[in-house]
Amino acid sequence: MKVLITGAGGFLGRGLVVPFEERGDSLRLMDVVSFSSRHETVIGDVADLETVMKAAAGMEAIVIAHMAPRTNNSYDFPTLPFDINVKGTANLFHAAVKNGIKKVVVISSTSVMDYCKSENLPHDLPPMSRGFYGLSKVCQEMIAESFALEHKIRVACLRVGYIVDGDKNVDKYGRKIEERAPLDTDRRDIGEVARLFLDREDLTFERFTVMSTPEAMIPWDLRYTCERLNWKPKYDFSWLRIPPNK
Ligand SMILES: NC(=O)c1ccc[n+]([C@@H]2O[C@H](COP(=O)([O-])OP(=O)(O)OC[C@H]3O[C@@H](n4cnc5c(N)ncnc54)[C@H](O)[C@@H]3O)[C@@H](O)[C@H]2O)c1
């Protein structure tokens, strides 16, 4: 499958590609910051429609995994989250329609579920949030659902937990993870779920939670993802100790 992945040079992107590589997909990797890769790369801004149109040309699927950087308190202001996360997502869906691309995966976040204080959250809880990060993720999901309905694009919003490099046990900021938490999510597990969804011809619009730990099965409705996609996490962080009193 020919797949465009945005934010591919980022923390998630660098691990998410692995299951796609294992299947021998033809990848076009896009990021605004240059990075080295053995795949075709596009260095450009997702907020620029012309660039996005060129990046999407000839592709069969898109995985939207970019995000505005958190530097300079950028999420205290609406400009970058909305210019990059939201406008970038709208540009990519527009480009999908114009290029006849029928499958898209949007990397969302559990932040769109945080408002609900229930112990067990359904995977398809309507998105709602506060703050410019959470609001930008809500808008991404709303754009995704709208395009899925209007243009018959098959779309999955992956509500991913706390992303960790399961080989080094570090998060995006290089912080060491010593204990297992329910939301811990290996980047490759996210890639695997995205890839499994893209293989499916029978699914239209889906919201999935994606974590790697058994502790997320019921509280975060991870079992739905497992059952629906016939998947189970490969990197379950079983090698990390569980904190006492859990
Ligand atoms: N890190 C986590 O724990 C976590 C948790 C939940 C959801 N997510 C989601 O995962 C996705 C990836 O996050 P990440 O942690 O890998 O972030 P990251 O900052 O490491 O990666 C994002 C990438 O997007 C690129 N980017 C920024 N602006 C761009 C633009 N204008 N055009 C093209 N590319 C641009 C950046 O250069 C970067 O490489 C995001 O959608 C984020 O909301 C992350």
Gross morphology = globular
- Rg, Cα atoms, Å: 17 Å
Strand content: 15-25%
CATH superfamily heading? NAD(P)-binding Rossmann-like Domain
Distance between the amino and carboxyl termini: 42 Å
At CATH level 2, the architecture is: 3-Layer(aba) Sandwich
Query: What is the makeup of the main sheet?
Result: 7 strands, parallel
Major beta sheet, strand line-up? 3-2-1-4-5-6-10
| Oligomeric state as shown | single chain
Write the element-wise H/E pattern from the N-terminal end onward. EHEEHEHEHEEEEHEH
The number of distinct β-strands equals 10
State the helix count.
6
Brief overview:
This protein is α/β, with parallel strands linked by helices and 246 residues long. It has helices at residues 11-22, 49-56, 79-98, 131-151, 187-199, 222-229; strands at 2-6, 26-31, 40-43, 61-64, 103-109, 154-160, 162-165, 170-171, 184-186, 205-210.
Helices, strands, pairings?
Layout: E1 2-6, H1 11-22, E2 26-31, E3 40-43, H2 49-56, E4 61-64, H3 79-98, E5 103-109, H4 131-151, E6 154-160, E7 162-165, E8 170-171, E9 184-186, H5 187-199, E10 205-210, H6 222-229
Helix pairs in contact: 1-5, 2-3, 3-4
Bound molecules: nicotinamide-adenine-dinucleotide.
Question: Can you describe this structure?
Answer:
This protein is α/β, with parallel strands linked by helices and 246 residues long. It has a single domain (2-229), classed as 3-Layer(aba) Sandwich (Rossmann fold). The protein has helices at 11-22, 49-56, 79-98, 131-151, 187-199, 222-229; strands at 2-6, 26-31, 40-43, 61-64, 103-109, 154-160, 162-165, 170-171, 184-186, 205-210. Helix 3 (79-98) links the parallel strand 4 (61-64) and strand 5 (103-109). The N and C termini lie far apart (42 Å). The model has no long low-confidence stretch (mean pLDDT 97). The structure holds nicotinamide-adenine-dinucleotide. Residues 6-7, 9-13, 30-33, 45-47, 65-69, 84, 88, 107, 109, 160, 162-163, 172 line the site of nicotinamide-adenine-dinucleotide.
